[in-house]
Task: structure prediction
Amino acid sequence: MAAARALTALLSLAVLAAGCQGAGAESFTRLPVPKPPAVQGSKPVLWVSLAAHLGGQPLALEGASAPLQLVDARGEQFSARRVQLRWVAQALAEPIEIRRSVLGPFASFEAAEQAALAWRALGVPAEVAHPRDWEVWAPADAPAPQGTAPRQLQQRLTQQRVLQLNAASGWRSLQGPVQIQAPGGLRFNGGVFAGPFRLQADAYGSWTLVEQVPLERYLQGVVPHEIGAGSPAAALAAQAVLARTWALRNRHRFEVDGYHLCSDTQCQVYSDPRQAGSAVRQAVSRTAGQVLAQNGEPIHAVYHASNGGVSADEDEAWPLPELGYLEPFLDLDGASVQGLTLPLDAQEVAALLARRSGVVGATHPLFRWRRQLDQVSLRKGLGARAASLGSPLKPVVMERGPSGRVLRLAIEGPGGRVVLERDAIRRTYRQLPSTLFVLAASGAGSWSVVGGGFGHGSGLSQAGAIELAARGWSVEQILNRYYPGARLVPIQTLPEEVHRGAL
Result:
């Protein structure tokens, strides 16, 4: 059985193998990891990472009210209420050569995926990975997409991390993946999770703790953390639909590492589902199995905290193709404000930011905000990239999108400039809650940033949904406002190849 599993893992990587390099060494684009199972059927199950990049520090796992039951890939079984695990370095029988072309880092999965699609259009098998930041990996020396310059990476691996368990007889080596059952739940990260679970190797030589969680239970652990458990019922229901749709649409996000989704802000924040209150549970059950779809596919169901009064086009946040259900619009209460028409220029953005009345979602704490950028913060955000620019530095808005958000921000100095685009702006300067802002000099080498909203601004504004739900809007009305043209449908009505995982 172990040999069959190893063969399956290697076959899963066959399209990315780069041939043999060096005496006795096999060469791969990455370490072989089997793909996660298809997310399928009317009651799909997700593989969600509770902790990734494990292997540096020991790991303790504890059963909440009953012993944990572990079975490794050889069939060896262990049972204990508290399990002590560690990783030790072990020499490989034969070294492994890792050779690949790399694009990145990218500020988001969406940006990385578009780069991967451009590579695949050339017939090159490319994958999105997340060793630290988002990257795209392809076979070494593959022809590059136009306008890109991949770097070449080469590693010779002579050791691997081996998982060990502290048993009564001493430390015992386990062969992954390790299956974990928790009859009374697994106590982890301040919560209790039902499982079942897996400890498995990833594409980087480290390990991941994965929960195999039914989609509807997963939503109970997502909805309260994404919109707040005290939100009105229709807003909670809208969030449940979107979280379900987003999960199905993005189930390939961590395929390179053998699971579907993470549990942090790179995906949707997922925590202990048992802590969900009755209102959240009702929102999930009320919308059970319902997703937003267009043309037979789950939509790109993005959402954010506050749009600041104007919804963004998808291309203002990520380099995505046109999505008709993510259109920019002024999120106003009733008639449009005189003097504001899309696309918004800098003066119109300033005029919008001066308003609170008549704008939906104005009660959010970051609906309007002010920040300062000075020489220290400008340089700190750029990191090593600032060294060649000299001093002083100056931020310059180069381009705005239809909603008035900044698409391209240049940081200029005597030695040149660095241009930040779309989501890279907020990733670089995390003190900026959104890219809906105007700049004004506020002293020598200092700039005042006046802005609105929190997040990328595309799709549902959670602050807007909360306000509209409090007024009596239905979940359907809220979703139609922020995703015009998308339809609310049961998962079962999607084409078989879609809900089997073949987007």
In short: Confidence is low (pLDDT under 50) at residues 1-24, 497-503.
